[in-house]
Amino acid sequence: MNQAPLSGTEQAWAALGGDPALLARLGSSAHLGSSTPPGSPAHLGSRGSGELLPARLPVMELARSAVAVCSLAAAELAARRTARPVPRVRIDDGAVATAFTSERHLRIDGRAATTFAPLSRFWRTADGWVRTHANYPHHRARLLATLGLPADTPDDIAVDTAAASFAGRASDEIERTVYAAGGLAVAARTPGEWAADPRGAALAGTPLVGRDRIDHATARRTAALAGEPLLPAAGLRVLDLTRVIAGPVATRTLALLGADVLRIDAPQLPESPDAHCDTGFGKRSVDLDLGSRSSAAAFDGLLADADVVVVGYRPGSVERFGLTPQALAARRPGLVIGRLSAWGHGPWARQRGFDSLVQVATGIASVEAAGPGARPGALPAQALDHGTGHLLAAAVLRALTEQHDEGGSRLVTLSLARTAAWLLDELPRCGKPHADADAGANAGANAGAGTAASAAAAPSYDPEKWLTETDGPLGRLRHAVPPVAFEGSPAGWSRPPGPLGADAAVWLTA
After folding, report:
1. Most buried residue, 47, 230, 251, 388, by CB count within 10 Å?
2. 240 has which bridge partners?
């Protein structure tokens, strides 16, 4: 008899090295359309509430599974540090779906957040489609330079010029030219084309979560007193070297769970204030130019007392300052290091990338197209970002548990492209047919919107239940509540986001 395929939750928990017996601690508050008993591991990977994030691919399963294993890893660490039983985990599908679309629900003193710039979009080319990303000023300027336009060109002129230029050029040529100039443009491919490409083939056989022990130091983190109420990461210090969505979601989760999270930014690199309003909860923020002697010294002082370092820059960016995982572990034995990139292994390992571009390159956009020849589609959420962010937080929490038991420095590694492969090829579809991925290479909707057919069939979904308001230095913020939940978990963060770079380079915890 053939065994039933593992649910998404079971797959993710196995990738994290978790004890399968702990899956019995999982439960869910939503059972729509599911015949599996509530609270069973299989239910946590079911398609019961897929309509909350409507798509051809199992996006809601990815979202639910990532949050479930993150919650379970947090509960496991809390139990280990307090010498208590593992708390029960309960996943609310509405909270998960709202959190995975948090940037759309964000309001800053009533104003909606800016998500995609006018030049971050799909363009018709001579042989298909290409997608550009130009949310940051320096990426916009580099894209415009390839069109012979100055950086201050108005958006309407830039859009018209790009459309006319790209329409007569091949997608691959645009991709090469823009990337060579330091910009971002990706040709739309099918899953089959990506799998055959050296960039996609490099990911074949790699784990969803890379887990490595760097050294065998015997030092262990100090556990809390037995019986003392404790959040899983209370007293732990996290250096947050991440930007945009995925990495900041991971460190926002660690802050929720009690860690002292200090975000480090280079003052010369612009960051979206709106994105920080969404992902900066629970953290403090400091500007450090690691190329300067004084900032490097300040970073060294912070590292000397850090428990976790999370790096979300493309490979090579922080390594040039001597911050390889091996060097970090040598300078701070017992450190847990989380590392995130867009493309993972292979020829594009050091290339810039964003969720919307990874969707296009890997073939997700072609699967989500409205039909053959249509504009490429997109997932109903930045699911690669949010999913990878929660998996990264889970991996760090599991590494802390293992380090608590065995000592040693740990490295966990994830990428958006590997999460995309999980979504395309490995998550169970529970009978829902896969679209003919290779029939619609030039096919959808703009990023952040589901397919028209899926959206039309979806029942009404009101996220208001899972939104709240918080006043702080950046104004009154309407934002999503945390989806990570277990018995004793916090309902919200300890502090609202503050201005980027406004805090001192010191730890709060003794």
Report:
1. 388
2. 263, 310
